[in-house]
Design goal:
The structure holds two protein chains of two kinds.
Chain A: H1 7-11, E1 28-30, H2 32-35, H3 44-47, E2 53-55, E3 61-63, H4 73-77, E4 83-85
Antiparallel strand pairs in A: 1-4, 2-3
Chain B: E1 5-10, H1 14-25, E2 30-33, E3 48-50, H2 53-57, E4 73-83, E5 88-94, E6 105-107, H3 110-127, E7 135-137, E8 144-147, E9 153-158, E10 161-170, H4 177-181, E11 194-203, H5 206-213, E12 219-227, E13 235-241, E14 245-253, H6 254-260, H7 264-273, H8 275-281, E15 285-295, E16 307-308, E17 311-313, E18 322-323, E19 328-329, H9 331-351, H10 356-368, H11 370-377, H12 379-385, H13 393-406, H14 416-427, H15 430-443
Parallel strand pairs in B: 1-2, 1-10, 2-7, 4-12, 10-17
Antiparallel strand pairs in B: 3-6, 4-5, 4-6, 8-9, 9-10, 11-14, 11-15, 12-13, 13-14, 16-17, 18-19
The chains are: A alpha+beta, B alpha+beta.
The complex binds flavin-adenine dinucleotide (FAD).
Residues 10-16, 33-36, 42-50, 141-142, 171-173, 178, 197, 199, 249, 251, 292, 294, 315-317, 321, 328-332, 334 of chain B line the site of flavin-adenine dinucleotide.
């Protein structure tokens, strides 16, 4: 068995673009007001394979783009109209650069 | 130089590169735009490239030095495994008939394969009559598909720049934002239309892989899994041998995942701990975790149409994909549809007509090819596979029977029929089995 890796360690195997850049332009915007008011399932907080949708100490959903691997899951999973999805800008955005794919 | 291209291709994945290769070989002027830093940088698959279309694009690719090649191993050993929590019952088929070239299945890693294929396309461009007028451009995101005053697609916009062409092939993959923008698919595509794929590449010595899987350096194994693999969620698992790594992963129905409140990587971890998988990946090191959406392959989710005035949709952007349990076919469908879209561009140029009527030839060609013939022919099988019974009842039944059948202990051995009967009544019912087998018989 390969040593067991946490999701954080797994995400650590991924090569990202603009890794060192601090002011990246987020390619996904989430209207978390919807997540935190009318959404019955808040499903992005568990279906996202990179855990970009998190829950803070007050139980509120928030979104962090840094680990996003552009897989598309939230684009379909969110049926509440809270997720606006674009591909990252090659220069200003983040996004993945797969080593294996 | 006329600044209008014969064709602009959006996306340097398999569909886009295959279209480009055909166009380059036929001296067409085209521009392919890929948003990744290089072709393949953004792409994930399992993945086995099934079929033989690659031999058409890159003749005799197998004569190339294997160390330079874009593929990992050719498949000569196939296995379909039913799993319960402790057991694995496999249908296993190995044949040297698979050793014949052109190979009928190649295990690939997309970051390497797509880049290799793009190099081949560049070589073809360099040898074409319009070598200085066709381009592969990377690191550019196409923001918009442009239309003329009559609504015919005539180019694209990327950032501040616009490029014009007689035709556009949209080969942007499953997350088909531009296909939606041109109005061929709804703006919102619901979760039951797709699956989420999660995968790990696990590094392992080539010799260890050869010995562990009884392979000889370039031959490889493909193994699909049904049942416990997906922890009750609709979908399946896979394990493929690369040269010096294994690709291990799952595809999970997204609607089902949402309803069952499960995390994809938790299910992947559990899958890797199953004794059948743990034994295969032992000693390996995870060198990349990845994820990507994949179409369910259900024809009901295809875009309304896959062509319009001046434009065609190729590959998974058009939801061309087959997932009937024993394999996923998305890459070969992407390849074939890219080739057929390119043929259509050439015929349209010849006819001097890029209208919708002319573009319809693309659809007709797809209907005549194995792509839409199979998708239509196996729709029932695809839907049967997505039945809830396929994730627990059936795999449990198969494993339960296997456990009884292969166990030798000190009690008298019942007849196999009796064992099967017991397995059925414990895990399912004759009625259910009858219903499913009738369906299967009809659809397979
Ligand atoms: C986990 C998993 C396992 C799979 N296993 C298999 C398998 O074993 N066998 C198989 O045949 N298939 C498999 N598939 C499916 C297969 O990967 C896809 O069907 C295939 O990649 C589709 O090819 P494509 O060329 O249509 O799209 P893609 O390969 O997705 O290529 C699309 C390209 O377009 C680019 N692009 C997108 N939008 C833009 C834009 N606006 N501007 C510029 N560029 C853009 C992207 O960067 C990308 O390079 C699997 C998929 C997954 C997720």
């Amino acid at each position: 068995m390969p040593e067991k890796k946490s999701l954080q360690e797994k995400l650590g195997t991924i090569n990202y673009r603009n890794q060192a850049k601090s002011d990246i332009k987020a390619h996904i915007s989430v209207d978390t007001d919807i997540c935190n008011s009318t959404c019955p399932h808040q499903c992005t907080t568990y279906v996202c394979p990179a855990d970009c949708y998190k829950i803070d100490e007050n139980g509120k959903v928030y979104f962090q783009v840094e680990d996003c691997i552009e897989c598309g899951t939230c684009l379909y999973a969110c049926d509440q109209g809270a997720v606006s999805w674009e591909f990252p800008d090659p220069e200003e955005g983040r996004g993945v650069n797969w080593n294996y794919g | 130089m006329d600044d209008k291209f014969d064709c602009i291709i959006v996306g340097g994945g398999i569909a886009g590169l295959s279209a480009a290769m055909e166009l380059a070989k036929n001296d067409m002027k085209f521009l392919l735009i890929e948003r990744g830093e290089f072709a393949g940088a953004k792409n994930v698959s399992g993945g086995v490239l099934w079929g033989t279309d690659l031999a058409r694009l890159v003749p005799e690719y197998w004569t190339e030095d294997p160390d330079e090649a874009g593929w990992e191993r050719f498949v000569n050993h196939r296995r379909l495994t039913f799993m319960d929590d402790q057991s694995a019952f496999s249908f296993d088929f190995k044949s040297d008939h698979f050793d014949a070239q052109p190979y009928k299945g190649l295990v690939v890693l997309r970051s390497k394969f797509d880049r290799w294929l793009a190099d081949k396309v560049q070589e073809a461009i360099d040898q074409s009559e319009v070598a200085m007028e066709s381009f592969l451009a990377t690191n550019i995101l196409v923001d918009k598909v442009l239309k003329d005053e009559n609504g015919k697609v005539n180019g694209i916009k990327a950032g501040e720049e616009e490029f014009f062409a007689d035709s556009v092939i949209i080969a942007e993959g499953v997350n088909n934002l531009l296909t939606r923008q041109v109005g061929l698919q709804d703006e919102y595509v619901p979760a039951d239309h797709v699956m989420t794929g999660v995968k790990e590449v696990i590094r392992m010595d080539r010799e260890t892989i050869d010995e562990r899987f009884q392979l000889d350096g370039l031959s490889g194994m493909s193994n699909e899994f049904l049942g416990y693999a997906t922890d009750g969620v609709e979908g399946g698992g896979f394990l493929y041998t690369n040269r010096a790594s294994l690709s291990v992963g799952l595809v999970l129905g997204l609607k089902d995942l949402r309803e069952k409140v499960k995390k994809p990587y938790d299910i992947l971890n559990k899958f890797k701990e199953h004794p059948a998988i743990a034994d295969m990946i032992r000693g390996g090191e995870v060198v990349e975790y990845s994820a990507h959406v994949v179409s369910s392959g259900d024809m009901r989710v295809m875009p309304e149409e896959i062509y319009a005035d001046g434009v065609m949709i190729a590959g998974e952007a058009a939801n061309l994909l087959m997932n009937a349990g024993k394999a996923i076919q998305g890459m070969d469908y992407a390849m074939r549809s890219g080739i057929l879209a390119a043929e259509t561009v050439m015929e349209a140029k010849e006819a001097g007509d890029f209208s919708k009527q002319q573009m319809k030839t693309y659809r007709d060609k797809l209907e005549e090819s194995y792509v839409l013939k199979d998708m239509r022919g196996f729709q029932g099988a695809v839907q049967t596979l997505h039945q809830p019974e396929m994730v627990d009842e059936i795999p449990d039944l198969v494993c339960d029977f296997g456990r009884k059948f292969f166990t030798v202990d000190d009690s008298p051995t019942p007849k196999a029929r009796k064992m099967f009967s017991e397995a059925v009544s414990k895990n399912s019912s004759w009625w259910n089995l009858m219903r499913l087998s009738l369906k299967a018989a009809k659809n397979l």
